[in-house]
Specification:
284 residues; alpha/beta; eight-stranded parallel β-barrel
């Protein structure tokens, strides 16, 4: 069965002024939980594997193959996406494996070099029918790589999208990667100006630090693809640790990993409900 593309999911959400959930997986339990949660929500979903997750597994093919297999088994509403790839070789490997989309992150480079590198990757991916997301304006957090407080300039973002030909753009509007608390204050006025200037869908990274009402407001203001990773890790860890503490004599890891997987599925379903029910002008 051919896989749905991230571009199809994002495009449909953008047309409806709704958000679409893009959830990062680290291991197989994450993948199956994301798929199960989306099925329960009756919503499309994007399963993402980051360059850091690939590094953890030592190679893309094993975990990438598992994600692609799970998506094909699930049916037409699950896309598989490579997230935060800084390596052109990793992008090419993902394209070869059958990923329908990639996020190429050259945001650590200066503007001109970011444009050049992203344009080259985008041309390669488009030649192979693959959708491309890029980043402009550094999102705070994540091992000190990004500068906290940075913001994306709308005029520069419009210029960047035109110069590179990307299909979606991750922008810095006040969120931060790897937040353990959900109290990030987004700049909704800036999101609106970015939506008005940028001709491609906008992507919110660091969404785990944004409360539910903030996510809904971000979608109303103009965000479409909502990336969530740390929140799922928090839920998974709490459930798995709770099960282990309740049953310290268990040695079968399926018990506590299963508890984590089930909790993540519930959280994915809940978060998709937050994003899918939002329409511009709808409930606050």
């Amino acid at each position: 069965m051919p896989l749905v593309s991230t571009g199809e999911i994002v495009g449909a959400a953008a047309a409806a002024r709704r958000g679409c959930g893009a959830f990062n997986a680290i291991q197989l339990e994450h993948i199956t939980a994301i798929v199960d949660g989306a099925a329960a929500a009756r919503a499309p979903v994007i399963v993402q594997l980051s360059q850091n997750a690939v590094r953890y597994h030592g190679a893309l093919a094993p975990i990438g193959g598992a994600a692609l297999a799970a998506a094909r088994e699930a049916g037409p509403d699950v896309a598989v996406h490579l997230d935060h790839a800084e390596s052109a070789d990793l992008v090419r490997e993902a394209v070869g494996l059958g990923f329908g989309s990639v996020m190429f992150d050259a945001s650590k480079l200066d503007y001109a070099d970011n444009v050049r590198a992203t344009r080259e990757i985008t041309a390669f991916c488009h030649d192979h029918g693959v959708w491309v997301e890029a980043e402009l304006g550094e999102v705070g957090g994540k091992d000190g790589v990004h500068a906290p407080g940075a913001r994306t300039d709308p005029d520069e973002a419009a210029e960047f999208a035109a110069a590179t030909g990307v299909d979606a753009l991750a922008v810095a509007v006040g969120s931060s990667h790897a937040m353990l608390t959900r109290d990030a204050a987004l700049d909704f006025e800036l999101i609106g100006r970015l939506r008005d200037r940028v001709p491609v869908p906008l992507v919110l990274h660091g969404s785990s630090g944004v409360p539910d009402d903030g996510l809904a407001a971000a979608v109303r203001a103009g965000m479409t693809k909502i990336n969530i990773a740390t929140q799922l890790n928090k839920v998974f860890t709490a459930a798995a640790a709770g099960d282990w503490r309740a049953h310290p004599d268990r040695v079968d890891p399926r018990k506590y990993l299963g508890a984590g997987r089930d909790a993540v599925a519930v959280e994915v379903r809940r978060l998709l409900g937050v994003l899918m029910l939002v329409t511009e002008g709808g409930p606050q």
